Amino acid sequence: MNIELNEHSSDVKDILNRYHINDTFWHFSPKYYDAYIRKICGDYLYESSAAFKNSKFSWVKNFFLHSCFIILGAFVSLMKSFGMSKPHGKINEDARILACPFCWRYVWFKRLPHMIKESIRIVYHPLFHYDYYKKNVEAYDRKVVIPEFYQFTFRDIFYSLFLIIRYYRRLSRCAKELDDIYGIYTGKFSRIFIFPILYGGFVRRFIEDHIKSNDGLVWLFDYDYDYKYIIFNNLIHELRKNDVTVHIQHGSFVTYNPAYCNPVCDYSLCCSHREKEVIDHFNAFDSKIEILGAPLQTFDDVPKDDKSEKQWDVLLLLAATDGIELEPMKKVLQFFHNSTYKCKVRFRPASKSTDRLKLCSYLNGMDESEGTTLYEDVSMSKIVVSFSDDALYTAIRNNNPIIYLRNIDIRKNYEMTGRSAFFYIINDSELSSVPVSELILRYRECNYDSDSFVLNNFGYFNINEISNRLNSLLSKLL
Protein backbone atom coordinates (compact mmCIF):
# COMPACT_ATOMS: atom_id res chain seq x y z
CA MET A 1 0.00 0.00 0.00
CA ASN A 2 1.41 3.39 -0.98
CA ILE A 3 1.36 6.12 1.63
CA GLU A 4 1.27 9.86 1.09
CA LEU A 5 4.37 11.94 1.51
CA ASN A 6 4.45 13.52 4.95
CA GLU A 7 2.97 16.95 5.49
CA HIS A 8 6.18 18.88 4.69
CA SER A 9 7.18 17.04 1.51
CA SER A 10 5.58 19.56 -0.84
CA ASP A 11 7.43 22.37 0.97
CA VAL A 12 10.70 20.45 0.68
CA LYS A 13 10.11 19.88 -3.03
CA ASP A 14 9.28 23.56 -3.61
CA ILE A 15 12.53 24.63 -1.96
CA LEU A 16 14.63 22.14 -3.94
CA ASN A 17 12.96 23.22 -7.18
CA ARG A 18 13.40 26.90 -6.44
CA TYR A 19 17.16 26.38 -6.05
CA HIS A 20 17.29 23.98 -9.07
CA ILE A 21 19.03 21.32 -6.96
CA ASN A 22 18.02 18.30 -9.02
CA ASP A 23 18.63 19.97 -12.39
CA THR A 24 22.07 21.14 -11.28
CA PHE A 25 23.43 18.11 -9.43
CA TRP A 26 21.48 14.84 -9.53
CA HIS A 27 19.28 14.68 -12.64
CA PHE A 28 17.11 12.14 -10.85
CA SER A 29 14.24 10.55 -12.73
CA PRO A 30 10.84 11.36 -11.14
CA LYS A 31 10.84 8.11 -9.11
CA TYR A 32 14.25 8.73 -7.55
CA TYR A 33 13.64 12.44 -7.07
CA ASP A 34 10.58 11.45 -5.06
CA ALA A 35 12.74 9.01 -3.09
CA TYR A 36 15.29 11.77 -2.44
CA ILE A 37 12.56 14.06 -1.09
CA ARG A 38 11.16 11.29 1.13
CA LYS A 39 14.64 10.59 2.43
CA ILE A 40 15.09 14.25 3.39
CA CYS A 41 11.75 14.24 5.21
CA GLY A 42 12.62 10.98 6.94
CA ASP A 43 16.00 12.32 8.05
CA TYR A 44 14.45 15.35 9.70
CA LEU A 45 11.70 13.33 11.38
CA TYR A 46 13.46 10.17 12.47
CA GLU A 47 17.23 10.33 12.09
CA SER A 48 19.87 11.71 14.41
CA SER A 49 22.68 13.69 12.80
CA ALA A 50 25.92 14.89 14.31
CA ALA A 51 26.71 18.58 14.02
CA PHE A 52 29.78 20.70 14.40
CA LYS A 53 28.48 24.07 13.29
CA ASN A 54 29.92 27.11 15.03
CA SER A 55 27.23 29.56 16.15
CA LYS A 56 29.63 32.47 15.62
CA PHE A 57 29.64 31.86 11.87
CA SER A 58 26.94 32.53 9.31
CA TRP A 59 25.07 29.66 7.69
CA VAL A 60 27.10 30.14 4.51
CA LYS A 61 30.43 29.97 6.38
CA ASN A 62 29.31 26.94 8.38
CA PHE A 63 28.26 25.19 5.19
CA PHE A 64 31.57 25.98 3.50
CA LEU A 65 33.66 24.81 6.47
CA HIS A 66 31.63 21.63 6.86
CA SER A 67 31.99 20.87 3.15
CA CYS A 68 35.74 21.40 3.18
CA PHE A 69 36.05 19.11 6.19
CA ILE A 70 34.28 16.29 4.30
CA ILE A 71 36.32 16.84 1.14
CA LEU A 72 39.50 16.77 3.25
CA GLY A 73 38.32 13.48 4.77
CA ALA A 74 37.86 12.02 1.28
CA PHE A 75 41.35 13.19 0.31
CA VAL A 76 42.93 11.61 3.41
CA SER A 77 41.02 8.39 2.74
CA LEU A 78 42.36 8.34 -0.82
CA MET A 79 45.94 8.89 0.36
CA LYS A 80 45.62 6.05 2.88
CA SER A 81 44.40 3.71 0.17
CA PHE A 82 47.67 4.08 -1.76
CA GLY A 83 49.37 1.95 0.87
CA MET A 84 46.66 -0.70 0.74
CA SER A 85 47.77 -4.16 -0.32
CA LYS A 86 46.12 -5.28 -3.54
CA PRO A 87 43.94 -8.41 -3.43
CA HIS A 88 45.70 -11.56 -4.59
CA GLY A 89 43.94 -13.44 -7.35
CA LYS A 90 41.91 -12.62 -10.43
CA ILE A 91 38.63 -10.75 -10.10
CA ASN A 92 35.80 -12.38 -12.03
CA GLU A 93 34.65 -9.49 -14.21
CA ASP A 94 32.18 -11.80 -15.97
CA ALA A 95 30.15 -12.37 -12.80
CA ARG A 96 26.56 -11.24 -13.25
CA ILE A 97 25.86 -10.71 -9.55
CA LEU A 98 27.40 -7.70 -7.79
CA ALA A 99 26.99 -7.39 -4.04
CA CYS A 100 27.63 -3.84 -2.80
CA PRO A 101 27.93 -3.65 0.99
CA PHE A 102 26.73 -0.17 1.88
CA CYS A 103 26.88 -0.59 5.63
CA TRP A 104 30.65 -0.77 5.93
CA ARG A 105 30.69 -1.25 9.71
CA TYR A 106 29.13 -4.71 9.48
CA VAL A 107 30.15 -7.70 7.39
CA TRP A 108 26.62 -8.78 6.49
CA PHE A 109 27.56 -10.10 3.05
CA LYS A 110 30.26 -12.49 4.24
CA ARG A 111 27.92 -15.51 3.92
CA LEU A 112 26.54 -14.73 0.46
CA PRO A 113 29.44 -16.19 -1.60
CA HIS A 114 28.82 -19.57 0.05
CA MET A 115 25.05 -19.37 -0.46
CA ILE A 116 24.87 -18.26 -4.09
CA LYS A 117 25.63 -20.79 -6.82
CA GLU A 118 26.42 -18.21 -9.52
CA SER A 119 29.69 -16.25 -9.60
CA ILE A 120 29.53 -13.13 -7.46
CA ARG A 121 31.58 -9.96 -6.97
CA ILE A 122 31.81 -8.20 -3.60
CA VAL A 123 32.33 -4.51 -4.35
CA TYR A 124 33.01 -1.91 -1.63
CA HIS A 125 32.40 1.77 -2.36
CA PRO A 126 34.79 4.46 -1.03
CA LEU A 127 35.05 4.54 2.75
CA PHE A 128 36.04 7.35 5.06
CA HIS A 129 37.02 4.81 7.72
CA TYR A 130 39.72 2.78 6.03
CA ASP A 131 40.29 0.53 9.05
CA TYR A 132 36.74 -0.80 8.75
CA TYR A 133 37.46 -1.98 5.22
CA LYS A 134 40.58 -3.86 6.32
CA LYS A 135 38.55 -5.57 9.06
CA ASN A 136 35.75 -6.42 6.63
CA VAL A 137 37.85 -8.06 3.93
CA GLU A 138 39.39 -10.43 6.47
CA ALA A 139 35.93 -11.93 7.06
CA TYR A 140 35.61 -13.25 3.50
CA ASP A 141 36.85 -16.62 2.30
CA ARG A 142 39.41 -15.59 -0.35
CA LYS A 143 39.14 -19.02 -1.97
CA VAL A 144 35.53 -18.20 -2.85
CA VAL A 145 35.57 -14.46 -3.55
CA ILE A 146 38.05 -11.58 -3.59
CA PRO A 147 36.49 -8.42 -2.12
CA GLU A 148 37.05 -5.37 -4.31
CA PHE A 149 37.55 -1.86 -3.01
CA TYR A 150 37.13 1.24 -5.17
CA GLN A 151 38.28 4.60 -3.86
CA PHE A 152 37.56 8.16 -4.91
CA THR A 153 39.92 9.57 -7.52
CA PHE A 154 41.53 12.99 -7.41
CA ARG A 155 39.10 13.97 -10.17
CA ASP A 156 36.11 12.94 -8.01
CA ILE A 157 37.37 14.99 -5.10
CA PHE A 158 38.42 18.14 -6.95
CA TYR A 159 35.33 18.20 -9.14
CA SER A 160 33.13 17.89 -6.03
CA LEU A 161 35.07 20.72 -4.40
CA PHE A 162 34.60 22.81 -7.56
CA LEU A 163 30.82 22.26 -7.49
CA ILE A 164 30.59 23.07 -3.78
CA ILE A 165 32.59 26.29 -4.15
CA ARG A 166 30.68 27.35 -7.24
CA TYR A 167 27.25 26.74 -5.73
CA TYR A 168 27.88 26.97 -1.99
CA ARG A 169 25.70 30.05 -1.48
CA ARG A 170 22.78 28.40 -3.25
CA LEU A 171 23.27 25.11 -1.37
CA SER A 172 23.69 26.76 2.03
CA ARG A 173 20.58 28.91 1.59
CA CYS A 174 18.60 25.89 0.47
CA ALA A 175 19.84 23.93 3.52
CA LYS A 176 18.88 26.81 5.82
CA GLU A 177 15.34 26.89 4.43
CA LEU A 178 14.99 23.11 4.88
CA ASP A 179 16.06 23.46 8.52
CA ASP A 180 13.56 26.28 8.98
CA ILE A 181 10.69 24.00 7.92
CA TYR A 182 11.36 21.56 10.75
CA GLY A 183 12.97 23.94 13.23
CA ILE A 184 15.94 21.57 13.46
CA TYR A 185 19.49 22.90 13.07
CA THR A 186 21.82 19.91 13.28
CA GLY A 187 24.00 20.04 10.20
CA LYS A 188 21.93 17.68 8.05
CA PHE A 189 23.08 19.50 4.93
CA SER A 190 26.18 17.28 4.75
CA ARG A 191 24.04 14.18 4.24
CA ILE A 192 21.54 15.91 1.97
CA PHE A 193 24.01 17.66 -0.35
CA ILE A 194 27.74 17.14 0.25
CA PHE A 195 27.98 13.35 0.36
CA PRO A 196 25.66 12.91 -2.66
CA ILE A 197 27.78 15.36 -4.66
CA LEU A 198 30.93 13.46 -3.73
CA TYR A 199 29.48 10.01 -4.41
CA GLY A 200 27.52 10.99 -7.52
CA GLY A 201 30.65 11.36 -9.65
CA PHE A 202 32.14 8.18 -8.24
CA VAL A 203 29.08 6.06 -8.99
CA ARG A 204 28.87 7.14 -12.63
CA ARG A 205 32.61 6.56 -13.15
CA PHE A 206 32.46 3.16 -11.44
CA ILE A 207 29.63 1.92 -13.65
CA GLU A 208 31.21 3.26 -16.85
CA ASP A 209 34.78 2.07 -16.11
CA HIS A 210 34.39 -1.19 -14.19
CA ILE A 211 31.20 -2.83 -15.47
CA LYS A 212 32.10 -4.41 -18.81
CA SER A 213 29.35 -7.00 -19.24
CA ASN A 214 26.61 -6.26 -21.75
CA ASP A 215 24.36 -8.84 -20.10
CA GLY A 216 21.84 -7.82 -17.50
CA LEU A 217 23.31 -7.83 -13.99
CA VAL A 218 21.78 -8.23 -10.56
CA TRP A 219 22.94 -5.71 -7.94
CA LEU A 220 22.55 -6.70 -4.28
CA PHE A 221 22.43 -4.00 -1.60
CA ASP A 222 22.20 -4.35 2.16
CA TYR A 223 21.27 -0.85 3.24
CA ASP A 224 18.54 1.71 2.64
CA TYR A 225 19.40 4.72 4.78
CA ASP A 226 21.96 6.50 2.64
CA TYR A 227 21.43 8.98 -0.18
CA LYS A 228 24.07 7.24 -2.26
CA TYR A 229 21.72 4.24 -2.32
CA ILE A 230 19.25 6.35 -4.30
CA ILE A 231 22.05 7.65 -6.53
CA PHE A 232 23.22 4.11 -7.30
CA ASN A 233 19.74 2.95 -8.26
CA ASN A 234 19.09 6.01 -10.41
CA LEU A 235 22.35 5.69 -12.36
CA ILE A 236 22.14 1.91 -12.73
CA HIS A 237 18.76 2.23 -14.41
CA GLU A 238 19.91 5.23 -16.47
CA LEU A 239 23.10 3.61 -17.76
CA ARG A 240 22.14 -0.10 -17.74
CA LYS A 241 18.52 -0.61 -18.74
CA ASN A 242 18.50 -4.41 -18.28
CA ASP A 243 19.98 -4.53 -14.78
CA VAL A 244 17.94 -5.36 -11.68
CA THR A 245 18.55 -4.02 -8.17
CA VAL A 246 17.75 -6.10 -5.09
CA HIS A 247 17.66 -4.96 -1.48
CA ILE A 248 18.39 -7.73 1.05
CA GLN A 249 17.15 -6.67 4.46
CA HIS A 250 19.43 -7.48 7.34
CA GLY A 251 16.37 -7.51 9.60
CA SER A 252 14.40 -4.74 11.31
CA PHE A 253 13.07 -7.19 13.83
CA VAL A 254 11.02 -5.09 16.20
CA THR A 255 11.16 -1.56 14.85
CA TYR A 256 11.50 0.12 11.53
CA ASN A 257 12.14 3.44 9.92
CA PRO A 258 10.17 4.54 6.83
CA ALA A 259 13.42 5.39 5.08
CA TYR A 260 14.60 1.83 5.69
CA CYS A 261 11.37 0.04 4.83
CA ASN A 262 10.53 2.09 1.74
CA PRO A 263 13.00 0.50 -0.68
CA VAL A 264 13.77 2.05 -4.05
CA CYS A 265 15.20 -1.20 -5.45
CA ASP A 266 13.28 -3.31 -7.94
CA TYR A 267 13.06 -6.12 -5.38
CA SER A 268 13.20 -6.17 -1.61
CA LEU A 269 13.94 -9.46 0.14
CA CYS A 270 12.70 -9.30 3.71
CA CYS A 271 13.09 -11.65 6.64
CA SER A 272 9.59 -12.39 7.84
CA HIS A 273 5.84 -12.07 7.34
CA ARG A 274 5.76 -9.15 9.77
CA GLU A 275 8.44 -7.29 7.81
CA LYS A 276 6.58 -7.87 4.56
CA GLU A 277 3.45 -6.28 6.02
CA VAL A 278 5.49 -3.30 7.23
CA ILE A 279 7.22 -2.79 3.89
CA ASP A 280 3.99 -3.24 1.95
CA HIS A 281 2.55 -0.41 4.05
CA PHE A 282 5.40 1.96 3.18
CA ASN A 283 6.15 0.68 -0.32
CA ALA A 284 5.69 3.93 -2.23
CA PHE A 285 7.85 2.82 -5.16
CA ASP A 286 6.17 -0.52 -5.87
CA SER A 287 9.20 -2.67 -5.17
CA LYS A 288 8.41 -6.37 -5.42
CA ILE A 289 8.51 -7.79 -1.90
CA GLU A 290 9.62 -11.39 -1.31
CA ILE A 291 10.00 -13.23 2.00
CA LEU A 292 13.47 -14.76 2.04
CA GLY A 293 14.45 -15.30 5.65
CA ALA A 294 17.46 -13.84 7.44
CA PRO A 295 20.58 -14.65 5.39
CA LEU A 296 22.67 -11.77 6.73
CA GLN A 297 22.34 -12.62 10.42
CA THR A 298 24.09 -15.36 12.35
CA PHE A 299 22.21 -16.83 15.29
CA ASP A 300 23.08 -19.85 17.38
CA ASP A 301 20.42 -22.53 17.56
CA VAL A 302 19.89 -21.97 21.27
CA PRO A 303 17.79 -24.29 23.45
CA LYS A 304 14.30 -23.20 24.34
CA ASP A 305 12.58 -22.49 27.63
CA ASP A 306 15.27 -22.61 30.30
CA LYS A 307 13.40 -21.97 33.58
CA SER A 308 16.20 -22.98 35.93
CA GLU A 309 17.11 -20.85 38.93
CA LYS A 310 18.29 -17.42 37.90
CA GLN A 311 21.27 -15.53 39.24
CA TRP A 312 20.16 -12.10 38.01
CA ASP A 313 16.88 -10.21 38.06
CA VAL A 314 17.76 -8.08 35.05
CA LEU A 315 20.20 -8.46 32.17
CA LEU A 316 20.96 -5.12 30.49
CA LEU A 317 22.05 -5.58 26.87
CA LEU A 318 23.70 -2.40 25.62
CA ALA A 319 24.23 -1.18 22.06
CA ALA A 320 27.10 0.71 20.45
CA THR A 321 27.65 4.16 21.93
CA ASP A 322 28.45 5.88 18.62
CA GLY A 323 24.80 6.52 17.76
CA ILE A 324 21.65 8.02 19.19
CA GLU A 325 21.35 5.42 21.97
CA LEU A 326 24.12 6.83 24.18
CA GLU A 327 22.02 9.22 26.25
CA PRO A 328 19.10 6.75 26.65
CA MET A 329 21.56 4.09 27.84
CA LYS A 330 22.90 6.47 30.47
CA LYS A 331 19.35 7.07 31.74
CA VAL A 332 18.52 3.36 31.84
CA LEU A 333 21.72 2.50 33.70
CA GLN A 334 20.92 5.21 36.23
CA PHE A 335 17.36 3.89 36.59
CA PHE A 336 18.49 0.37 37.46
CA HIS A 337 21.31 1.63 39.67
CA ASN A 338 18.67 3.39 41.78
CA SER A 339 16.57 0.21 41.97
CA THR A 340 16.87 -2.81 44.25
CA TYR A 341 17.11 -5.28 41.36
CA LYS A 342 20.13 -7.49 40.93
CA CYS A 343 21.44 -6.47 37.51
CA LYS A 344 24.09 -7.62 35.08
CA VAL A 345 25.39 -5.49 32.20
CA ARG A 346 26.52 -6.93 28.87
CA PHE A 347 28.31 -4.71 26.36
CA ARG A 348 28.29 -5.19 22.62
CA PRO A 349 31.39 -7.39 22.03
CA ALA A 350 32.52 -5.62 18.85
CA SER A 351 32.84 -2.22 20.56
CA LYS A 352 33.11 -3.15 24.24
CA SER A 353 36.24 -1.17 25.11
CA THR A 354 34.95 2.06 23.54
CA ASP A 355 31.44 1.65 24.94
CA ARG A 356 32.66 0.90 28.45
CA LEU A 357 34.86 4.00 28.42
CA LYS A 358 31.86 6.20 27.62
CA LEU A 359 29.54 4.54 30.16
CA CYS A 360 31.90 3.59 33.00
CA SER A 361 30.74 6.44 35.25
CA TYR A 362 27.15 5.13 34.98
CA LEU A 363 27.89 1.51 35.86
CA ASN A 364 28.13 2.29 39.58
CA GLY A 365 29.54 -1.09 40.49
CA MET A 366 27.06 -3.17 38.48
CA ASP A 367 28.22 -6.66 37.56
CA GLU A 368 29.53 -6.90 34.01
CA SER A 369 29.47 -9.88 31.69
CA GLU A 370 32.95 -11.31 31.32
CA GLY A 371 33.90 -14.58 29.65
CA THR A 372 30.31 -15.77 29.15
CA THR A 373 28.21 -16.13 26.01
CA LEU A 374 25.04 -14.22 25.30
CA TYR A 375 23.00 -17.39 25.80
CA GLU A 376 24.62 -18.04 29.19
CA ASP A 377 23.86 -14.50 30.34
CA VAL A 378 20.27 -14.67 29.09
CA SER A 379 19.59 -18.08 30.62
CA MET A 380 20.82 -16.90 34.03
CA SER A 381 18.57 -13.80 34.05
CA LYS A 382 14.86 -13.45 34.78
CA ILE A 383 14.14 -10.58 32.39
CA VAL A 384 16.06 -8.91 29.57
CA VAL A 385 16.26 -5.16 29.02
CA SER A 386 17.80 -4.62 25.60
CA PHE A 387 18.94 -1.90 23.22
CA SER A 388 19.95 -4.60 20.72
CA ASP A 389 17.71 -6.08 18.03
CA ASP A 390 19.79 -9.17 17.40
CA ALA A 391 20.04 -10.23 21.03
CA LEU A 392 16.25 -10.47 21.28
CA TYR A 393 16.24 -13.73 19.34
CA THR A 394 18.07 -15.50 22.17
CA ALA A 395 15.79 -13.98 24.82
CA ILE A 396 12.67 -15.02 22.90
CA ARG A 397 13.91 -18.58 22.47
CA ASN A 398 14.58 -18.65 26.20
CA ASN A 399 11.12 -17.19 26.98
CA ASN A 400 12.45 -14.25 28.97
CA PRO A 401 10.18 -11.25 29.54
CA ILE A 402 11.63 -8.47 27.38
CA ILE A 403 11.79 -4.70 27.63
CA TYR A 404 13.11 -3.41 24.32
CA LEU A 405 14.28 0.20 24.38
CA ARG A 406 14.21 2.12 21.16
CA ASN A 407 14.63 5.86 20.83
CA ILE A 408 12.75 5.82 17.52
CA ASP A 409 9.51 3.86 17.48
CA ILE A 410 6.54 4.44 15.21
CA ARG A 411 4.15 2.18 17.07
CA LYS A 412 0.98 3.57 15.54
CA ASN A 413 1.85 1.59 12.39
CA TYR A 414 3.44 -1.39 14.08
CA GLU A 415 2.31 -4.49 15.90
CA MET A 416 4.42 -7.55 16.49
CA THR A 417 2.77 -10.83 15.55
CA GLY A 418 1.85 -12.65 18.74
CA ARG A 419 3.14 -9.89 20.98
CA SER A 420 2.34 -10.67 24.60
CA ALA A 421 2.12 -8.91 27.96
CA PHE A 422 5.73 -9.94 28.51
CA PHE A 423 7.13 -7.94 25.59
CA TYR A 424 7.42 -4.14 25.88
CA ILE A 425 8.69 -1.74 23.22
CA ILE A 426 9.35 1.64 24.82
CA ASN A 427 11.69 4.62 24.85
CA ASP A 428 13.81 5.52 27.84
CA SER A 429 11.32 8.07 29.21
CA GLU A 430 8.64 5.35 29.50
CA LEU A 431 10.67 2.89 31.56
CA SER A 432 9.17 3.98 34.88
CA SER A 433 5.71 2.99 33.62
CA VAL A 434 6.70 -0.63 32.97
CA PRO A 435 5.86 -3.09 35.80
CA VAL A 436 9.44 -4.37 36.10
CA SER A 437 8.87 -5.98 39.50
CA GLU A 438 5.85 -7.89 38.20
CA LEU A 439 7.79 -9.14 35.17
CA ILE A 440 10.53 -10.41 37.46
CA LEU A 441 8.04 -12.19 39.72
CA ARG A 442 6.14 -13.75 36.82
CA TYR A 443 9.04 -14.59 34.52
CA ARG A 444 8.23 -18.32 34.64
CA GLU A 445 4.83 -17.62 33.04
CA CYS A 446 6.35 -16.10 29.90
CA ASN A 447 5.82 -18.27 26.83
CA TYR A 448 6.08 -16.83 23.33
CA ASP A 449 5.38 -20.11 21.49
CA SER A 450 8.81 -19.22 20.18
CA ASP A 451 8.89 -21.40 17.07
CA SER A 452 5.98 -19.58 15.41
CA PHE A 453 6.90 -16.27 17.07
CA VAL A 454 10.41 -16.39 15.62
CA LEU A 455 9.16 -17.50 12.21
CA ASN A 456 6.61 -14.68 11.91
CA ASN A 457 8.76 -11.90 13.35
CA PHE A 458 12.36 -12.90 12.64
CA GLY A 459 12.01 -15.20 9.64
CA TYR A 460 13.50 -18.47 8.48
CA PHE A 461 16.90 -19.42 9.88
CA ASN A 462 17.49 -22.69 8.07
CA ILE A 463 20.44 -21.61 5.95
CA ASN A 464 19.89 -24.33 3.33
CA GLU A 465 16.27 -23.30 2.85
CA ILE A 466 17.23 -19.63 2.61
CA SER A 467 19.97 -20.44 0.11
CA ASN A 468 17.54 -22.37 -2.09
CA ARG A 469 15.04 -19.50 -1.98
CA LEU A 470 17.72 -16.96 -2.88
CA ASN A 471 19.15 -18.99 -5.76
CA SER A 472 15.68 -19.62 -7.15
CA LEU A 473 14.95 -15.89 -7.25
CA LEU A 474 18.34 -14.98 -8.74
CA SER A 475 17.97 -17.57 -11.50
CA LYS A 476 14.70 -15.89 -12.52
CA LEU A 477 16.31 -12.45 -12.59
CA LEU A 478 19.44 -13.39 -14.55
Automatic annotation (TrEMBL):
Transmembrane domains' residue ranges: 63-82, 149-168, 189-207
Keyword Transmembrane helix applies: yes
Question: What name goes with this protein?
Answer: Uncharacterized protein
Native organism: Xylanibacter ruminicola (Prevotella ruminicola)
This protein's UniProt keywords: Membrane, Transmembrane, Transmembrane helix
